[in-house]
Amino acid sequence: MAKNPWKEYTRPGLEFFFDLNQNRLNTRNDENFINRLGRDNLNTLGNNSLLDIYLSKGRVVEPHYHQNAAELVYCISGSVLVSLINPFTNQRSDIPITPGQVANIPKGWWHWEEATTDGTHLLAIFDAPYPEYIFGSDLLTKTPIEVLSHTYCLDPKLLKKALAPLNNETIVIGPTDECVADTYGRKPKTKSEVKSSKRSTSSIENSDYPYPYW
Predict the structure, then answer these.
(1) Which one of 125, 173, 183, 186 has the largest count of C-beta atoms within 10 Å of its C-beta?
(2) CA pair distance 209, 120, nearest whole angstrom
């Protein structure tokens, strides 16, 4: 049944403003983080929500899909490569976007975003008040090694070693600072980056809604 707009918009406690800077979803470091807006933050919000995403060059919003929402990615600054897989053709598309451009990801399609310049700022807009997520890191770490190795004929010892750096965490923004330092010999840029890299970067900050309602 449709809501009565008279009752809906004359009730007490209506909210018309929210500061996304006060609702951090995920922090990788000072340059790579995501803020969130959902209906739990703004009770007059309709069937939509958004993520405010900041990335440095080479950082990736890890492969994932939203089983209940389509996603429109809008580039505010920098540049990003939005990649998606069409489940009907099994073909991958790589879509580069720059400020003022968008890439659309239909509901349920596997996708990821990689910043191609520093200072990349994106808005991810969803047609659901609480988009649901299934992340690639969770598929890899929650599926038993025995199942993966048997199904895909993989060496279980090598597979376990290969997945060990994930630390059984939901990555969200990758690669981790530890991986960057080990692979490229780069050190975290600031003390706060060092601090953030030592804590669990898969934690949901300032949110009453547990996974998958990020």
Answers:
(1) 173
(2) 27
Six token digits for residue 187: 């050190």
The H or E element containing residue 155 is none
46 by Cβ neighbours in 10 Å (0-12 / 13-18 / 19+) ranks as: exposed
Q: Do 120 and 60 meet the contact criterion of CB atoms below 8 Å apart?
A: no
CA atoms within 13 A on the CB side of 78: 22
Neighbours of 214 (CB within 10 A): 21
pLDDT, tens only, 139-166: 999 999 999 999 999 999 999 999 999 9
CA dihedral 56, 59, 64, 69 (to 10 degrees): 10
Largest CA distance in the chain: 63
Query: Sorting pLDDT into bands at 50, 70 and 90, what band is 1?
Result: low
Using the structure block, give the residue that is written with the tokens 């580069």.
96
Has residue 9 got a pLDDT over 50?
yes
Burial 153-164 (b: 16+ CB within 10 A, else e): eeeeeebeeebe
pTM of the model: 0.84
Query: Is beta strand 173-174 parallel, antiparallel or unpaired with respect to 60-65?
Result: antiparallel
* Those residues with Cβ within 8 angstroms of residue 207's Cβ, 6 or more apart along the chain or in another chain: 23, 25, 36, 214
Residue 198 has pLDDT above 50, yes or no: no
Residue 2 exposure: Cα atoms within 13 Å on the Cβ side = 3
Half-sphere CA count of 138, side-chain side, radius 13 A: 12
Higher-pLDDT residue of 11, 89:
89
Cβ-contact 28, 115 below 8 angstroms = no
